[in-house]
Design a protein that fits this description.
The complex is a heterodimer of chains A (459) and B (178). Chain A is mainly α and 459 residues long. Chain A is 70% helix and 0% strand. Chain A has helices spanning 2-12, 24-36, 42-68, 82-107, 117-138, 164-197, 201-211, 218-251, 263-289, 298-328, 332-343, 347-359, 367-370, 373-399, 415-438, 444-448. With 178 residues, chain B is of the alpha+beta class. Chain B has two domains: 6-53 and 130-177; 56-121, no CATH class. Chain B has a four-stranded antiparallel beta sheet, with helices on one face. Chain B is built from five helices and four strands; from the N terminus they run βαβαααβαβ. In chain B, 46% of the residues lie in helices and 13% in strands. The two termini of chain B are 16 Å apart. The chains are: A mainly alpha (459), B alpha+beta (178). The interface between A and B is large, with 65 and 70 residues.
């Protein structure tokens, strides 16, 4: 009994969302000075430089692709989707955590989100941008990608609205637009802060134009708050719909392993799972390097770890149901798929996936690991690898052994596949480097509302 | 020499609590054309200056309706009227397949209308505004709280309003040139 009481006490002494002792002024100074006063470090230039070179490598690979066609990739018949779709789903999924943090946690009044929502939203934007590249270049003729949109044309045709691939075009482009709006309007009051605090004429003008003359009027704040809540209310079903629609790309097809009703919830949970892993992999170095441990506290790391643990179990349930249905459905193709996963040529990746996504996250039950930055960083890395493998297993293992033995084959990615994939990671990180350098990475005005002095005392 | 017209009288406060109290007293004293500025949203402040309703939800609703209805009609017209394709004898107006795009269009237009509606109703973008003429107003985006009585208010008088604002115990008072 005594021990249990201790546990309760320990649980109640959760680390604060923001360390005590801060005022409106010091919070403002601390976050805005990273952008305005802090000299750009050599480490930043090296990191950005490396990522920029990787981006150039991606552009080179895409350039060669445009020149030669998708034959330079490892895709073939029967595996027509390959890395392009694996990476697309992986990146889109990563983006989901940003919207979850900024919209869903806002509606649930989880105020701890205030210190991580800004860069999580930026992460969403860059991840969706990286994701968008893949279906575009996978079309083979990306210069005709505008054919995907319904526009009046001389060919006298319209795109097929009954196809999930077209739903995807609408879902992903809506998601990008709404994420961009959400991120930008969230920035407006902080851009006004930077405008007023900057001493550089150019910075004043640029931040000033972007802030659009924000002056913090009570009427403006009122409409702003209403708009922000409504946008969160719209973004919440949107984010759930996006990965649902992505899963429809698979589930509507009759391919074994794709044609299942569990795909939408299982994809959404997997998306949040990998997204929180990416949030942690970004937050842990950022808080260390920029000395933001007081704002991004252990509370944030622990909460993210718990979200990963929960969504990890939903994903594990998804794997379990997939395996169960392979047996229970009595469908020999489904049963074969299960056998092929366990014993086929790609079985190693299936076992690796189970280790990464179900085994490793169980370490998060250990409190000491949840409070260790290095431990969380490594677990997140493993989860990101695991979630990438999940999409590899879904895309490649379902396709490579078709219904007829005559259409069996193997898929091996080529160096162009790898260059494009690693290049998008470089592009994503290069964009993050630029973001932390030129915009406030933590929402200053929302941090002010967390301070005790923000509370209006009754007379 | 031409005298600059006056936009209003501005008082500066140290805390949100002080500003809300001052705004409430000013409103009760009969000043109707007032506004308050804070570095973060203060719910009580909106009520204190007598501002209750805003048009953002309505604009968002209109946007969502436009998006949803036009999204469905677009698909109906393209798939059932202008370019009908017979897929195994299934109906041309296959509405379940049109739900996703209708939904996404609702969200897209609702979201765009919400943001643009908020900006338009707030009169933004407006890079220049008379309140920026007060040098101390730069602190409004950091840690200071401001109350303004506009010179268009019928009760406004250069001396009377200043005396009234002084009675609220502000940190400083300045006249805002327009």
């Amino acid at each position: 009994m005594a021990e249990r009481m201790d546990d309760v006490e320990v649980a109640n002494q959760r680390p604060p969302v923001i360390e005590p002792g801060y005022t409106f002024g010091t919070v403002t100074d601390k976050i805005s000075s990273i952008v305005l006063n802090r000299p750009t470090s050599t480490g930043w230039f090296i990191g950005f430089g490396v990522c920029f070179l990787l981006t150039m490598m991606m552009l080179y690979a895409i350039g060669f692709l445009v020149l030669k066609g998708t034959g330079i990739w490892g895709i073939n018949i029967p595996v027509g989707w390959g890395f392009a779709i694996v990476n697309f789903v992986w990146w889109i999924g990563i983006g989901h955590a940003g919207t979850l943090i900024s919209a869903i946690l806002l509606l649930l009044r989880q105020t701890w989100r205030n210190s991580i929502n800004r860069f999580a939203e930026a992460m969403t934007l860059f991840a969706v941008a990286a994701a968008g590249i893949f279906p575009l270049i996978h079309t083979g003729r990306p210069w005709l990608a505008y054919w995907l949109f319904p526009y009046p044309n001389t060919m006298n045709y319209w795109p097929q609205f009954r196809s999930p691939l077209l739903w995807d075009v609408f879902a992903v482009s809506t998601y990008f637009t709404i994420s961009l709006l959400f991120w930008f309007v969230g920035l407006i009051p902080d851009l006004a802060t930077l405008r007023d605090r900057s001493e550089n004429r150019w910075a004043q003008m640029i931040y000033g134009m972007l802030a659009m003359g924000w002056r913090g009027s009570a009427r403006h704040w009122h409409r702003y708050e209403t708009m922000y809540l409504l946008l969160a209310g719209l973004a919440t079903p949107l984010v759930l719909s996006v990965h649902t629609v992505v899963s429809f790309d698979f589930a509507i097809a009759i391919v074994p392993g794709w044609h299942t009703t569990i795909f939408p919830p299982y994809f959404v949970a997997g998306a949040i799972y990998s997204g929180f892993a990416m949030v942690l992999m970004l937050a842990i170095p950022i808080r260390k390097l920029y000395g933001l441990e007081d704002f991004i506290t252990e509370r944030h790391l622990q909460n993210s770890a718990k979200v990963m643990l929960a969504t990890g179990w939903i994903v594990a349930y998804g794997y379990g149901i997939e395996a169960f249905m392979g047996w229970y459905s009595g469908n020999r193709y489904d049963a074969f798929l299960l056998w092929n996963r366990l014993h086929g040529p790609y079985a190693f990746f299936y076992y690796l996936l189970l280790t990464c996504n179900i085994g490793t996250p169980q370490l998060l039950w250990i409190r000491r690991l949840r409070t260790s930055s290095v431990g969380l960083f490594l677990v997140s890395l493993v989860i990101l690898v695991g979630m990438w493998l999940e999409r590899f297993v879904i895309v490649v293992m379902s396709l490579h052994r078709d219904f007829l033995n005559s259409s069996w084959g193997m898929y091996y990615p080529t160096r162009w596949d790898w260059m494009t994939f690693i290049g998008t990671i470089g592009m994503f990180l290069a964009a993050m480097f630029l973001f932390v350098r030129i915009l406030p990475m933590i929402s200053i005005f929302e941090m002010r509302t967390l301070l005790p002095e923000a509370e209006v005392k009754a007379e | 020499m031409k005298t600059t017209p006056i936009y209003g009288m501005m008082a500066e406060f140290d805390s949100a609590t002080d500003l809300v109290a001052a705004a409430r007293k000013t409103h009760e004293a009969g000043y109707k054309k007032i506004d308050a500025y804070s570095p973060f949203p203060v719910e009580e402040l909106t009520e204190a200056i007598g501002f209750h309703k805003n048009g953002v939800p309505f604009v968002t609703l209109i946007g969502g309706l436009i998006g949803g209805i036009s999204g469905y009609l677009m698909q109906y017209w393209m798939m059932a009227i202008d370019y009908p394709i017979n897929v195994g004898g299934r109906p041309y107006n296959s509405w379940p397949a049109f739900i996703v795009v209708t939904f996404e269009m609702t969200i897209l237009f609702g979201g765009i209308f919400a943001v643009l509606g908020m900006l338009a109703l707030n009169g933004l973008p407006m890079p220049y505004h008379p309140v920026f003429n007060v040098p101390r107003f730069a602190m409004a985006t950091k840690d200071r709280f401001f109350l303004i009585v506009f010179s268009t208010d019928p009760k406004y008088s250069p001396t009377g309003t200043r005396q009234f604002l002084e009675s609220l115990g502000p940190r400083s008072i300045s006249e805002v040139p327009s």
